[in-house]
Amino acid sequence: MAKKPKKISSNTIVQNKRARFDYHIHEKIEAGLELQGWEVKSLRAGKGQLVDSYVIFKNSEAWLLGALIQPLQSASTHFVTDPTRTRRLLLHRKELSRLQDAISQKGHTVVALSLYWKKHMVKCEIAVAKGKQLHDKRDTEKERDWNRQKQRLMRND
Length: 157
What we know:
Blueprint: E1 12-15, H1 17-22, E2 23-33, H2 37-44, E3 48-49, E4 54-58, E5 61-65, E6 68-69, E7 87-90, H3 93-103, E8 108-118, E9 121-131, H4 134-156
Antiparallel strand pairs: 1-8, 2-7, 2-9, 3-6, 4-5, 5-7, 8-9
């Protein structure tokens, strides 16, 4: 009998923690994701990554680039699988035009923040973001360290 993949307790499949460190997040939008069957099975098993993924606009459609979904050995035997293929994001026209206007500003881009389950569908949380400079990243790191120290001090008291 085949082993069942581990269930993830929350609805979140994968997060892009690097995006929150590298960018100032301005506006978040939920988008649908067009996937193939083997990709859904792999995501159920937790085999996805969003590091270095971003969104481009081509022919008035949004496409997710750089997202990695590793194929399962057992489920993907008769398919030609491409783990880093570009996947179409499903958005309304108004959302598409708003995002395209936002990235026309200098320094702004659209990045993928997370993949999660909503009922039986995979959704992608994307955000309009502006790149942080080196001193902003240092400030973020200092603030995170200080919050960690505060938590330790509160626990010890």
